[in-house]
């Protein structure tokens, strides 16, 4: 039976689900982000311990050294749930698609000076392997972290990293066909400049504390790498040397970093303000990883700029990272 | 390297290989075992991860584009549904029982799959299955979220929806689905894929989704049938992943075959037990029926299952061990479950009812050999009690099966007049089962199943100690959400609002 129900005004029984009412009251209708994120993970009466590690719980907050009274405090300021996430990325990929078309139709790659292309090849294309490691690391955090508001953005972040690796691969195919990807992989495996980074990522892939992985990958490494490579080397150095075409094809990475660091910073700030113990753990991780990755990235920067300038750029990125940490309430 | 070379045209397969497979590398600073610590312990041997055939070739940009298109449509429809009081379009409020059960049991399962696929998407040592599993992980959180969003509007007007999060963890019947997904997640990565990717998504998904979504469509529930249709192309990808993973395991090493067979036996049985709730929904909870459980089983179980296992026979895989028992149970389970739910209706966050005269005619026609003979007399007894001002309740607590967590209310496969009950002694304790299938599952891994959280046992222990009122509070069960449909607020409101609509 099809009936006309549009005109009827009937009184609602419930504004919202009880778990959201408990958290946010029922004065306001909860957002779709809240409905999609809070308390979705099972909390109690987990049936069996993992056969792979019987000392753990199926969802286990103690896998991390970080302690939270409520892991659902770690909300994502972007309020990404699946729908808002995909809609955003779909829009960005449309832009990227037209960027690729523009670069192609204007023959921007062919017109680019050789030294610029060489930097793109030597510096950018091997990074697709680093993005693969970031994809794996974020998948781990999503799988083993605690509480949906913390773990959910990590699966998005993992897929974003895969997307970035694929954009870099397309760039490689454009500048040098399959041989570009082969040469980049050779560099990644063997060349001196990349070995410290590859080694560090293999090390990080052995870490099982989900928050430690989150901090070292998303805050420290990405927090050094993106400002260094995309903001400074690509968007400044290469553009000045006639490489605007490269900058157009890495626009996604630049915007993505600016967008996602809001989320990463907010997570760190909330964890740090929870307790002095958390703060100390975060400071220890960040301090050691920031120093370590700064030295790891130095030879990488050296692929694009001369030694002195590489020093300068890397230490600028390092300072910027520490500023972010301070803003999040650390090292004070 | 020759820069600025005219790119060759790459075919889709080669391009996808470069965009995914080629991203990974063989670690040399750390041992693979440190990076993938859980990939060996189940005994599955993989000699060459690159033999994995990508079941679908979606790069992220294409994924974002297609999925966003579907999301836009989906939310436009459920917004319109909410705005236009679409909930008043359902056939009648009995239908809501089906979607309450779905939200309390299945949506949390979608979420668990999301987390489980993230884990295996990290634990496999090959980039092909890693990426395929990660994509399924992100799809599964989509399904959990779209379902919550679709139900959110029903929650505004009806009882039984609002406490799904607490009830997922505490109320007795949700532990059927919870224990199923917890079981899969606590298994190793390969077993998880056989459990969810193969048995659930490939073998059984049509028995869950087709009835549910057509049921929604038949009964005027636009919101639910929209998420069903929107999820369909995701499900198609998940099914190909399920099939690919089993073929991959079987082709890698003959030693894998008996392990995989054991998992198929287990998860087929586990899945069929879980689906008895769907059987009850199809035969009893839909005011307008799509087809009987028996008819659905004949198409999606028997026909599809036979074709699949004929195909797998070339690897030496046999049909699941307890297939015959399932076949024998098909004409019985829906009646047994619904009678169970009805007699314990004071303890469920959904309503149940006795079948109407026309329901009875339909059930007789669809189950000519069983309904009238075994189950109609029990329903008639319940109806007579109501007519005499009484109520048909069973305040005794059901004994739950240690494995599937359903009450031990099923009958012997070959004698529908005998309740089936099995028990096993393990380390000085007695454990109870509803069937040979569940007992078999237990005996393969007793150290796992002794850990099961049994809601009835919990109710008798501290701090509840058998206090029914305290239990109801603990599971957030309000009396208005439970009990006989005929006396429910949901029914009264629905009818009042519908009347209001037709007189306006």
From TrEMBL, chain A:
Keywords assigned by UniProt, alphabetized: Monooxygenase, Oxidoreductase
GO molecular function, one term: oxidoreductase activity, acting on paired donors, with incorporation or reduction of molecular oxygen, NAD(P)H as one donor, and incorporation of one atom of oxygen
Matching InterPro entries: Ferritin-like_SF (IPR009078), MP_mOase_hydro (IPR012078), Phenol_Hydrox (IPR003430), RNR-like (IPR012348)
Organism superkingdom: Bacteria
Pfam families recorded: Phenol_Hydrox
Name of the molecule in the record: Phenol hydroxylase
Source organism: Alteromonas alba
Taxonomic classification: Bacteria, Pseudomonadati, Pseudomonadota, Gammaproteobacteria, Alteromonadales
């Amino acid at each position: 039976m099809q009936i006309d129900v549009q005109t009827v005004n009937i009184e609602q029984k419930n504004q919202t689900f009880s778990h959201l009412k408990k958290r946010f009251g029922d004065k306001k209708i909860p957002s779709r982000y809240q409905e999609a994120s809070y308390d979705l993970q099972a909390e109690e009466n987990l049936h069996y311990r993992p056969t792979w590690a019987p000392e753990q719980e199926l969802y286990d907050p103690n896998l991390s050294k970080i302690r939270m009274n409520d892991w659902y405090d770690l909300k994502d300021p972007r309020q990404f749930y699946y729908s808002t996430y995909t809609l955003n990325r779909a829009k960005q990929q449309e832009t990227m698609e037209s960027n690729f078309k523009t670069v192609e139709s204007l023959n921007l790659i062919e017109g680019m000076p050789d030294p610029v292309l060489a930097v793109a090849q030597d510096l950018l294309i091997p990074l697709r392997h680093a993005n693969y490691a970031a994809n794996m690391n974020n998948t781990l955090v999503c799988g083993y972290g605690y509480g949906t508001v913390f773990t959910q953005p990590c699966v998005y972040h993992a897929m974003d990293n895969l997307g970035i690796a694929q954009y870099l691969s397309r760039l490689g195919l454009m500048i040098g066909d399959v041989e570009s990807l082969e040469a980049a992989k050779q560099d990644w495996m063997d060349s001196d400049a990349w070995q410290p980074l590859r080694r560090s990522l293999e090390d990080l892939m052995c870490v099982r504390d989900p928050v430690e992985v989150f901090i070292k990958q998303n805050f420290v490494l990405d927090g050094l790498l993106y400002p260094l490579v995309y903001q400074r080397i690509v968007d400044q150095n290469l553009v000045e040397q006639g490489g605007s075409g490269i900058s157009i094809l890495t626009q996604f990475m630049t915007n993505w970093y600016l967008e996602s660091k809001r989320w990463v910073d907010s997570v760190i700030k909330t964890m740090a303000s929870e307790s002095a113990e958390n703060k100390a753990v975060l400071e220890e991780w960040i301090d050691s990883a920031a120093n370590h990755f700064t030295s790891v990235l130095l030879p990488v920067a050296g692929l694009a700029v001369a030694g002195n300038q590489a020093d300068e750029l890397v230490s600028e990125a390092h300072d910027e990272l520490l500023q972010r940490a301070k803003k999040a309430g650390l090292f004070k | 390297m020759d820069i600025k070379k005219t790119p060759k045209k790459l075919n889709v397969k080669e391009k996808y290989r470069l965009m995914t497979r080629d991203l990974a590398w063989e670690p040399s600073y750390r041992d693979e075992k440190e990076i993938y610590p859980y990939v060996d312990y189940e005994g599955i041997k993989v000699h060459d991860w690159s033999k994995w055939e990508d079941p679908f070739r979606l790069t992220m940009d294409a994924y974002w584009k297609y999925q966003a298109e579907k999301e836009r449509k989906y939310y436009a429809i459920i917004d319109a549904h909410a705005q236009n009081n679409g909930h008043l379009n359902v056939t009648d409020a009995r239908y809501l029982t089906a979607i309450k059960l779905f939200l309390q049991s299945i949506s949390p399962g979608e979420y668990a799959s999301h987390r489980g696929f993230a884990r295996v998407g990290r634990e496999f040592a090959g980039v092909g299955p890693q990426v395929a599993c990660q994509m399924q992980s992100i799809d599964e959180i989509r399904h959990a979220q779209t379902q919550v969003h679709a139900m959110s509007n029903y929650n505004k007007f009806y009882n039984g929806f609002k406490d799904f999060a607490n009830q997922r963890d505490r109320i007795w019947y949700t532990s059927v689905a919870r224990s199923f997904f917890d079981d899969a997640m606590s298994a190793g990565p390969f077993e998880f894929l056989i459990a969810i990717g193969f048995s659930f998504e490939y073998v059984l998904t049509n028995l869950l989704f087709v009835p549910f979504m057509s049921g929604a469509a038949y009964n005027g529930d636009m919101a639910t049938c929209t998420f069903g249709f929107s999820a369909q192309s995701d499900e198609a990808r998940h099914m190909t992943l399920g099939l690919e993973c089993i073929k991959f395991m079987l082709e890698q090493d003959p030693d894998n075959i008996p392990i995989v067979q054991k998992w198929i036996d287990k998860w087929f049985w586990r899945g069929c037990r879980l689906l008895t709730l769907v059987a009850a929904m199809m035969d009893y909870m839909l005011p307008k029926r799509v087809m009987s459980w028996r008819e659905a089983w004949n198409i999606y179980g028997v026909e599809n299952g036979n074709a699949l296992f004929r195909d797998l026979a070339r690897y030496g895989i046999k049909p699941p061990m307890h297939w015959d028992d399932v076949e024998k149970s098909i004409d019985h389970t829906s009646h047994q479950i619904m009678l169970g739910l009805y007699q314990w209706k004071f303890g469920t966050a959904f309503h149940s009812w006795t079948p109407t005269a026309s329901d009875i005619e339909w059930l007789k026609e669809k189950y000519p050999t069983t309904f009238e003979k075994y189950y109609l007399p029990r329903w008639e007894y319940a109806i007579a009690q109501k007519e005499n001002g009484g109520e048909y309740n069973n305040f005794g607590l059901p004994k739950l099966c240690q494995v599937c967590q359903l009450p031990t209310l099923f009958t012997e496969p070959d004698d529908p007049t005998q309740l089936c009950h099995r028990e096993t002694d393990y380390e000085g304790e007695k454990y109870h089962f509803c069937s040979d299938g569940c007992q078999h599952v237990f005996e393969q891994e007793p150290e796992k199943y002794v850990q099961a959280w049994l809601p009835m046992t919990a109710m008798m222990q501290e701090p509840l100690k058998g206090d029914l009122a305290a239990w109801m509070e603990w599971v957030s069960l309000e009396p208005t959400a439970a009990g006989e449909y005929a006396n429910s607020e949901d029914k009264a409101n629905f009818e009042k609002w519908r009347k209001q609509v037709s007189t306006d």
